[in-house]
Amino acid sequence: MRPRIVCHMISSVDGRLHPSRWTPPAAGINAGLPHRHYEEVAGRLGAEGWIVGRKTMSEIAKGSERNPAAAGGLPRETHVADRKGRDLAVAIDPHGKVHYGQDNAGGDHVVAILGEGVSDAYLAELREDGVSYVFAGRNGHDLAHALDTLDEAFGVKTLLLEGGGAINGAFLKARLIDEISVLVTPAIDGLSGVPSIFDYVGAIDERPAAGQSLRHLSTETLEGGFVWLRYRVEDAPASA
Ligand SMILES: NC(=O)c1ccc[n+]([C@@H]2O[C@H](COP(=O)([O-])OP(=O)(O)OC[C@H]3O[C@@H](n4cnc5c(N)ncnc54)[C@H](OP(=O)(O)O)[C@@H]3O)[C@@H](O)[C@H]2O)c1
Q1: The 3-state secondary structure of 62-74, one letter per residue
Q2: pLDDT value at residue 240
């Protein structure tokens, strides 16, 4: 069984994701509040780790490519390194582009979700770094299978999906999101085309959220005018 997935994001009131573009806080409001609220609220969601897309993890990971020699062919099988009881930092990285240089991201144990086409040298590098990995089919896009494997290998019951918009959109389209948690910041971006919470990459006639409905769970207003919204994702009514 796959873990419960809570998509947890912070955005401007127009749903945009790049804080550096947002209007500044109103006079007297602490500029450190967005980060503080985001982490505090995340801690209340009871997750055992977090998932991000390859591009977002590339901004976090600080390693560089090493190409170590791989003795013989390494099997495309789940590799569980030493988790040391830590939460999981999961990266959806189909082509093996992220280099870690260590076994953690922000103190949480790294698990790479890969396509089977990655090189043996890349797998050897992950093993040297102490990183765990699992496979998501040939092209690395079988997210449901990867989540089932995460539960089997690590026993995680709840994970936060924390962006960016592309990977959130892929999870939405695959109907793998159980809850949406959005921290709305009192700020505006305002420009057309800036990445937003869900940025599924597809054809113009696709509806990535088709067949799904949101049921309100709770709303909390936090210091500084931040609003924390929680919705359960349900199957849409048959008539919709
Ligand atoms: N405000 C916030 O809360 C927040 C949170 C997170 C991120 N961000 C920002 O968002 C930006 C990155 O977001 P992003 O949307 O461009 O990238 P992303 O979602 O972080 O990563 C997208 C990548 O994930 C991989 N991927 C694996 N399976 C996929 C699938 N089924 N569909 C689509 N992609 C799949 C692809 O890697 P390959 O290209 O290698 O195939 C794809 O390019 C960063 O600037 C980051 O700072 C903001």
Answers
A1: CCCCCCCCCCCCC
A2: 65
Contact 232/214 with Cβ under 8 angstroms? Answer: yes
Q: How far apart are CA 38 and CA 226, in angstroms?
A: 10
- Cβ–ligand 1 distance for 208 under 6 Å, the answer no
Q: What is the mean pLDDT of the chain?
A: 96
Cα(93) to centroid(ligand 1), Å? 9
CA–CA distance, 123 with 120 (Å, rounded to integer): 5
Query: What is the four-CA torsion angle of 189, 190, 193, 195, rounded to 10 degrees?
Result: 20
Q: Is the CB of 195 under 6 A from ligand 1?
A: yes
Amino acid letter for position 131: V
Ligand 1: residue whose CA is nearest its atom 28: 141
- The string over 88-100, giving b where at least 16 C-beta atoms fall within 10 Å of a residue's C-beta and e elsewhere, is bbbbbbbebebbb
**Span from the CA of 163 to the centroid of ligand 1 (angstroms):** 6
CA 28 / ligand 1 centre spacing (Å): 34
Of 239 and 8, the one with more pLDDT: 8
Average of per-residue pLDDT across 199-222: 96
Q: Catalogue all structural domains in the chain, each as residue range(s) with its CATH number.
A: 1-48+157-240 (3.40.430.10), 51-156 (no CATH)
Q: Measuring CA to CA, which residue among 95, 123, 91 is closest to residue 109?
A: 91
Token couple for 6: 């809570």
- β-bridge partners, 135: 114
Q: Tell whether omega for the bond before 164 is within 30 degrees of 0, i.e. cis.
A: yes
Phi then psi for residue 42, to 5 deg, are -60, -40
Residue 98 has pLDDT above 80, yes or no: yes
* Structure tokens belonging to residue 228: 């924390």
